[in-house]
Write a structure and sequence with these properties.
The protein has twelve helices and twelve strands. Helix 10 runs antiparallel to helix 11 and helix 11 packs across helix 12. The longest helix is centred in the last third of the chain and has 17 residues.
């Protein structure tokens, strides 16, 4: 990899200041926490920062706190800590399971929730030094004519990557919010508004501006009567990213849906919330027919590529299964 300088910072303010300084000097700098993903990108020279701002040396950014309104999780909290936390296991339905499905035990021990949400695409064209794809400054998304087995069926174009995070779809199903620190101070927004479709900017996956970093995830307590379901399908039963995943949170009374959230992973450049399917479900008895119809609505408008049409039927089946399991 290209040589770089590592800088251990002691505060969020220092990290933001350095990022802003280097950006103003036209120098490349990136933040690193667990480093499980960034170091891979650096080895492939997809990322070539001159400076690494090490966030792990900032005290107080690794925590899981339960409050009256819900949970607050520091950006440097590892996936293993989330997976094994007893309160998360008992009160946040499937969030512990989603954390445990991400990567391998070794990577979960180092990888953080902030890093998991901010991952770059795991597209083989993007990650290969042999291709200068659209997202790396080229003119083509090679998946259009190349191997598109694991690429987007929803929300694609002009780039057809899929967002690789296991945690993000689950968190969006819970209605999570994300706190961001930057030169202008702190802001907190719904997590689903954090991600950027390629139609908006095909070189970015999220809204982070130069000098901004993620500091916290906020998760409200599920409403009374809520049930959840999470399932991830992968190519092999080992460390792998989702081909399709589904996260559902359903609040029902006597089998009738009062509120629903349905979020898919592995099918779009962002975690894909099936808002029309959610609207269809409200006020309906959630039986097999309604669950099947919700799956059809969620995938309406899907545009599979030449190699990934199988994802459409798989996603429909997973949504049906998830909804029936959440009643």
């Amino acid at each position: 990899m290209k040589s770089f300088e590592n800088i251990n910072v002691r505060s969020v303010k220092e990290a933001v200041g350095l990022l802003q300084k280097f950006n103003g000097e036209k120098k490349t700098a990136q933040v690193v926490s667990g480093g499980t993903e960034l170091l891979q990108l650096m080895k492939e020279r997809v990322a070539t920062p001159q400076y690494l701002i090490n966030l792990k040396t900032i005290p107080g950014l690794s925590y899981i706190k339960e409050e009256r309104s819900g949970f607050r999780i520091g950006a440097l909290t590892t996936l293993t800590e989330i997976e094994e936390n007893k309160s998360v296991q008992e009160k946040l339905l499937f969030l512990s399971q989603a954390a445990g499905e991400a990567a391998s035990p070794q990577l979960r021990n180092a990888g953080t929730i902030g890093g998991n949400i901010c991952q770059r695409p795991f597209c083989w064209y993007f990650r290969s030094a042999s291709f200068t794809c659209l997202r790396k400054g080229g003119e083509l998304c090679y998946a259009v004519t190349g191997d598109s087995r694991f690429h987007a069926i929803l929300g694609g174009g002009p780039s057809y990557i899929v967002h690789p995070s296991d945690m993000a779809p689950a968190l969006i199903a819970f209605g999570a919010r994300i706190k961001i620190a930057g030169p202008a101070g702190e802001k907190t927004i719904p997590l689903e508004k954090f991600f950027v479709l390629p139609q908006v900017d095909y070189k970015r996956e999220n809204i982070l501006q130069p000098g901004e970093i993620v500091t916290e995830i906020q998760i409200p307590h599920p409403r009374t009567g809520s049930k959840g379901f999470y399932h991830k399908v992968r190519e092999r039963q080992a460390w792998d990213h989702p081909i399709v995943s589904v996260s559902t949170v359903l609040q029902a009374k006597d089998g009738t849906c009062q509120e629903a959230r349905v979020v898919l992973g592995g099918v779009a450049p962002v975690p894909w919330r099936a808002a029309k399917a959610e609207a269809f479900l409200r006020g309906k008895k959630v039986d097999e027919a309604a669950a099947r119809q919700a799956g059809e609505i969620a995938l309406d408008g899907a545009r599979p590529m030449k190699d990934n049409g199988y994802k459409v039927g798989l996603a429909k089946s997973l949504i049906q299964r998830a909804l029936l399991a959440s009643v």
